[in-house]
Amino acid sequence: MELLRTVLEAVKNTGSGTLRSVAPIIGILLIFHLIVLRxxxxxxxxxxxxxxxxxxxxxxxxxxxxxxxxxxxxxASGALAQRGSLVLAVVFxxxxxxxxxxxxxxxxxxxxxxxxLTAGALGATVFVQTVAVxxxxxxxxxxxxxVLGVEITPFFIPALALVIVLTFFAPERYTxxxxxxxxxxxxPVTVPLAIALGSGLALALGRGxxxxxxxxLVAFAALGPILxxxxxxxxxxxxxx
Length: 241
Hints:
This protein is mainly alpha-helical. Helix content is 83%, strand content 0%.
């Protein structure tokens, strides 16, 4: 019972902050719908219930990340740094990036939408797996950079240049999908875990300026899926075909 009370109190405190975060966008949508567009809200009961569930679910999810997933990620990063193994860091980055991506709700929604709009030519499973592999590779490269003590520029500039080059060869439809996929992966699961891994490794390895060596992992996690989706587009061709 004591544990239940603690959890409920924690969720209650998180819920107030979540409501303050969600309230502006709810207000903007309602103002545009009712005042600017002058459209009546016909299913207002269902919408009200959905908004309430959104706030409650998001509060529970964020509190779970705070008290469970983030400490676990930081602990694993510290233990990983003590081993000092580059191979182990790469393997852990691959596993973490891949698993975190599969847990992102935004990516699942995007993949389903893509499958519908392409009439199944680009399946949701293929799309999600491609993005997950891209994030895994990005996090692995970012973790390796921290272990080796190399600044971000020598890695990041060539990756950006490769993205620009691939956009000229990939079908136009894949270009938009690639960048949207990158944004879909930088959600409430991948970002906290990537930050925990990067800062944890840099701190445990004594890399000096944590802002230089501990961050940038999220950028690598975003660049990876862009590259992989563009390559997928070059291999498969136009999804509408």
